[in-house]
């Protein structure tokens, strides 16, 4: 972005509040009309009626006056891709701090963290080369952390679907070739995240395993069920050979042509490079607890994104929802009993150094964390929450599920908390790590691709997600764990 953030702030172009916003908030503070006493149904008998009213206020504020969508529009449109170490990542840090200050949190500050600085380079080219050097160009992209090819790299190809299959191949079948990892998603699985988990090791470790066998490079099928021409990037473990993702259409084509002509070759050209680490920051905003200020509830998303698009669903939505969750509580007139923190973590995508540093500082400062919530599954329709917690804690939160039922966000089960908040398990030990769950069926169509843009985000879905997170924070703040 050419225009500096300071100029935008001075010009009043950044984070402008909608017309009439102050007046709307004033009206929201008026006392609600007295509700007719109602006999609670058995499933909500343990939940005070006031909690139902409180959640309704939160959702009303989000749906009628929500700010997530407009904040995301600015982040994605004016800053865009935010890979760790890039100038855009620094602009995003400044944006996050300014956004929290505008929301009038009690305290806004930065946590310094050193992050990797990998640069993709301007040239990415892949071509299937057949008999008489007839070529078919196919969509490719470098995997994050890959080395470059040092010009054009051309070699034969051997296709495998697992590390065991690679291990069982004779040396002559692998040495001097590209290893093509072509394990698809298991489309029989209902949750796409499970399919991702079953395939992603070939992206993370494929180049490492191929290098052990003397291969010159690794080609990996993109992590998606979609059949299209969008290659999906993502981090890979450091290896001496380059690693690149093929779009699913390209992978299918290469596999088909290999069956017909096992001697064909692949030509790859990448210009990526790793530079020295850069200084960056987590962005932290707090609302101090009125009764138990030393007990902390953290909510966050990761501010960095891959560099192919705008990082809208991954994880711009999680960032704006985390800020919005705290803003909603304040706008609805609630004073949290426990201290609330919104954290925009830096470097989840290719290192998780922001999450690690946040946990280190929390342990060093002997902080008490009741719970941590993460939104990193996209900004789609809310479904509920997944918890990493002991049985008693899980049971307590599950009892709140009926309060979320009117909003179709009552799927509260054991599950994964999140990458950024994961390091809190060591040394801090929150009662629960909580992952925001939304409808993920479309997520891996755009995950880590050039298609992850603002136009893919629906306003209502995004605002409902922030409200769901705010509602859970309200209950955690009021009752603890």
Automatic annotation (TrEMBL):
Residues 31-42 have a biased composition (Low complexity). Its main location: endoplasmic reticulum. Keywords: Carboxypeptidase, Endoplasmic reticulum, Glycoprotein, Golgi apparatus, Hydrolase, Lysosome, Metal-binding, Metalloprotease, Protease, Secreted, Signal, Zinc, Zymogen. InterPro entries: CPQ, Peptidase_M28. It is found in: Endoplasmic reticulum; Golgi apparatus; Lysosome; Secreted. Residues 1-22 form the signal peptide. It holds the Pfam family Peptidase_M28. Residues 282-467 form the Peptidase M28 domain. It comes from the Bacteria. Residues 27-46 are annotated as: Disordered. Homodimer. The monomeric form is inactive while the homodimer is active. This is Carboxypeptidase Q. It comes from Hymenobacter monticola. The lineage of its organism: Bacteria, Pseudomonadati, Bacteroidota, Cytophagia, Cytophagales.
């Amino acid at each position: 972005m050419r225009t500096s953030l300071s100029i935008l702030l001075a010009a009043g172009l950044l984070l402008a509040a909608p017309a009439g916003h102050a007046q709307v908030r004033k009206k929201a503070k008026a006392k609600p009309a007295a509700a007719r006493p109602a006999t609670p149904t058995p499933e909500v008998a343990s939940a005070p009626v006031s909690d139902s009213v409180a959640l309704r206020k939160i959702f009303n504020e989000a749906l009628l006056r929500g700010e997530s969508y407009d904040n995301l529009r600015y982040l994605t449109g004016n800053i865009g891709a935010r890979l760790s170490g890039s100038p855009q990542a620094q602009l995003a840090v400044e944006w996050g701090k300014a956004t929290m200050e505008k929301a009038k949190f009690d305290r806004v500050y930065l946590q310094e963290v050193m992050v990797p600085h990998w640069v993709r380079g301007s040239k990415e080219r892949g071509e299937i080369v057949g008999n008489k050097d007839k070529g078919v160009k196919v969509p490719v992209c470098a995997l994050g952390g890959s080395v470059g090819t040092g010009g054009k790299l051309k070699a034969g190809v051997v296709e495998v679907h697992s590390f065991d299959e690679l291990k069982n191949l004779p040396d002559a079948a692998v040495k001097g070739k590209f290893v093509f990892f072509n394990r698809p998603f298991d489309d029989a699985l209902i949750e796409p995240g499970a399919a991702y988990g079953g395939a992603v090791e070939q992206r993370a470790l494929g180049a490492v395993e191929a290098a052990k066998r003397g291969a010159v490079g690794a080609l990996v099928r993109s992590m998606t069920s979609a059949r299209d021409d969008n290659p999906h990037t993502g981090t890979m473990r450091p290896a001496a050979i380059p690693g690149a993702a093929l779009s699913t259409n390209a992978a299918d084509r290469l596999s088909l042509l290999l069956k017909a002509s096992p001697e064909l070759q692949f030509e790859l050209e990448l210009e990526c490079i790793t530079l020295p680490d850069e200084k960056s920051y987590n962005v932290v905003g707090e609302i101090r607890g009125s009764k138990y200020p030393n007990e902390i509830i953290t909510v966050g998303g990761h501010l960095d994104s891959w560099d192919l698009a705008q990082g809208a669903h991954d994880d711009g939505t999680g960032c704006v929802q985390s800020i919005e969750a705290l803003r909603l509580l304040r706008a609805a007139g609630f004073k949290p009993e426990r201290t609330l923190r919104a954290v925009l973590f830096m470097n989840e995508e290719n290192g998780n150094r922001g999450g690690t540093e946040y946990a280190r500082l929390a342990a060093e400062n002997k902080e008490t964390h009741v719970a941590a919530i993460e939104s990193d599954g996209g900004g789609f329709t809310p479904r509920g929450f997944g918890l990493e917690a002991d049985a008693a804690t899980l049971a307590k939160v599950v009892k709140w599920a009926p309060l979320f039922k009117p909003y179709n966000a009552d799927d509260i089960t054991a599950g994964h908390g999140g990458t950024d908040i994961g390091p809190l398990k060591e040394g801090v030990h929150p009662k629960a790590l909580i992952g925001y769950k939304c409808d993920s069926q479309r997520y891996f169509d755009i995950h880590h691709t050039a298609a992850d843009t603002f136009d893919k985000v629906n306003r209502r879905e995004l605002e409902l997600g922030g409200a769901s997170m705010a509602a859970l924070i309200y209950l955690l703040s009021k009752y603890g764990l």
